[in-house]
Design goal:
Layout lengths: L1 H32 L3 H16 L7 H9 L2 H8 L6 H13 L3 H8 L6 H22 L22 H35 L2 H15 L7 H26 L3 H13 L5 H4 L8 H43 L1
């Protein structure tokens, strides 16, 4: 047992180090960035898009902060303005699909996923979801009641304080990463060496099959669903190395997870905004299933067609 714990801990430390080399510098950069004119420029850039989606210009602020920083920054910005219930729900849906783009997309590259694919899928889902809400929902015009959360935010004074905040935020992010990933790697090591991983994969095989993936991708999906993309990538890194998860399945898993990940935290976090969170979760889950299953079906059909073409050519060659 001690050997399993040591091996799992070693893997956890390796994964934490690999991911921290991405997370730490980007967190420092983005934290400092929020105190520069760049964010104001981004807000002005996307304001016309907000108006086309039935949102006020101020809605650009939580979207920019949520996408460049994280959900917490986006929510902090939401409560700084008097939005309607419909606007808050729309912002919540958009931020659920698309948030923390810089870090989560950069981390995805560690398992061979091209970041433009991830960013594009998330932004398109956010825009389409907002557009659909405007089409199907006529209500929600009353002002949102945010509950018992404070609007006060104390900004650091001076570039030294801003820099210190950036490094503190980055250090805490890496520390949180290690606290989650290392025990998780130990647990997964137990699962692998005791044969439980195979049992879990077999149990979840029908679900992954519907999504167009092999059963080996099941643990990747479970990890991402419950602990999110940034932290769940640790499991994905190991899945590629040890479980033999294919590149196709990793892409499909990420497409599913960019639509629906960290389902507990990323759902409950919106409760203080005074909006219904069950529809929020349902929309994310249904979107993830339909999108991934569709892409998986098309991808598998294309692979099957290509395989048949290769066999046909080989047969033609042999006949000569």
């Amino acid at each position: 047992m001690n050997g399993i714990i040591k091996r799992g801990t070693r893997q956890g430390l390796q994964v934490t180090w690999t991911l921290s080399k991405v997370i730490f510098p980007i967190t420092v950069f983005v934290t400092i960035l929020q105190y520069t004119p760049v964010l104001d420029w981004l807000v002005q850039l996307v304001t016309p898009l907000m108006n086309s989606l039935g949102l006020s210009g101020e809605a650009a602020i939580p979207l920019v902060l949520g996408n460049t920083l994280n959900l917490y920054a986006g929510i902090a910005a939401i409560i700084s303005f008097d939005f309607t219930v419909k606007e808050v729900f729309t912002l919540a849906i958009m931020l659920s699909f698309s948030h923390n783009l810089i870090i989560e997309s950069s981390v995805a590259t560690r398992v061979g996923i091209k970041w433009p694919v991830i960013v594009s899928v998330r932004i398109v889902l956010a825009i389409i979801s907002a557009w659909m809400i405007q089409l199907v929902w006529d209500g929600g015009n009353q002002l949102a009641q945010y509950g018992l959360i404070s609007k006060e935010m104390q900004a650091p004074e001076g570039w030294l304080a801003i820099g210190i905040e950036g490094f503190q935020t980055a250090f805490i992010s890496v520390l949180q990463l290690g606290v989650i990933v290392i025990p998780l790697m130990v647990v997964l090591q137990f699962f692998r060496e005791l044969g439980w991983m195979e049992r879990i994969s077999k149990t979840l095989a029908p679900c992954t099959r519907v999504l167009g993936m092999e059963k080996k991708a099941s643990m990747t999906l479970v990890a991402g669903l419950f602990i999110g993309l940034a932290y769940g990538t640790g499991v994905m890194v190991q899945a590629v190395k040890e479980d033999g998860v294919s590149k196709k399945d990793m892409y499909l898993a990420f497409i599913f997870l960019v639509s629906c990940h960290a389902v507990v935290e990323d759902t409950l976090i919106f409760i203080p905004l005074g909006i219904p969170v069950w529809p929020l979760l349902l929309i994310r889950l249904v979107t993830a299933i339909i999108l991934t299953a569709t892409i998986g079906y098309i991808w598998n059909r294309k692979q099957l067609t290509n395989r048949k073409e290769v066999i046909k050519h080989e047969h033609t060659y042999d006949s000569f």
